[in-house]
């Protein structure tokens, strides 16, 4: 419920500050705040990451793919599932970097790919691959939404195509998480493992390695330092 109200708050702010179609004294959020509950962000430690990495999985199997997606996210500073699903080969630069715009806030992330991430990419590369082809076998390359390559393309898509893309991402994320649960069981991990846990895991391990919040802000793609400080505070 709080997340839904947050979206309305953004719209009201835009109506008042950006579009100027609403008066300040009509802002309902001046005197209203939706209560939330405290949550604990789950994450894995380095030993659990190693257990997942060391699993002997059949190449091409659903659990093998799910393990690859999870580790690729972890190695790439916690790339979100929605962004990973939409990655194309044009997002991989000749200098061995991952460059893409985040779907959530359109911020550009430019990350040097670790050898482990490059190894995962090599499992999916084809000699006849085009730069606009999806990297991972998740999104349907023949779907109408696949024609939208850039963030600008996605922003100007008809509403029905946006809904189709959103439904696909939600479905694939649930599909990946279903098999990540099996990966966790095989690795003897009792925690709930999902794609977003890869992001939590990266952030927490980076913090333990001594990386400060100012640098983590850029690595995680946050717009404000306050967001990173709140995000990291929820681990403690």
Short description:
The protein has 236 residues and is mainly alpha-helical. It has helices at residues 2-18, 46-53, 62-75, 81-85, 115-122, 151-155, 159-186, 195-208, 213-220, 225-233, and strands at 97-101, 108-112. Helix 3 runs antiparallel to helix 5 (115-122), helix 3 (62-75) packs parallel to helix 8 and helix 9 packs across helix 10.
Q: Would you count the extended β strands for me?
A: 2
Series of H and E elements? HHHHEEHHHHHH
Low-confidence stretches: none
Q: Structural class, please?
A: mainly alpha
N-to-C terminal Cα separation, in Å?
A: 24 Å
Question: How would you classify the quaternary structure?
Answer: single chain
Mean pLDDT: 91
Please give the order of strands in the largest beta sheet.
Answer: 1-2
Largest sheet data:
2 strands, antiparallel
Structural overview:
With 236 residues, the chain is mostly helical. Helix content is 49%, strand content 4%. It has helices at residues 2-18, 46-53, 62-75, 81-85, 115-122, 151-155, 159-186, 195-208, 213-220, 225-233, and strands at 97-101, 108-112. A hairpin with a 6-residue loop joins strand 1 and strand 2. Helix 9 (213-220) packs across helix 10. The chain is globular. It starts with a helix and ends with a helix. The model has no long low-confidence stretch (mean pLDDT 91).
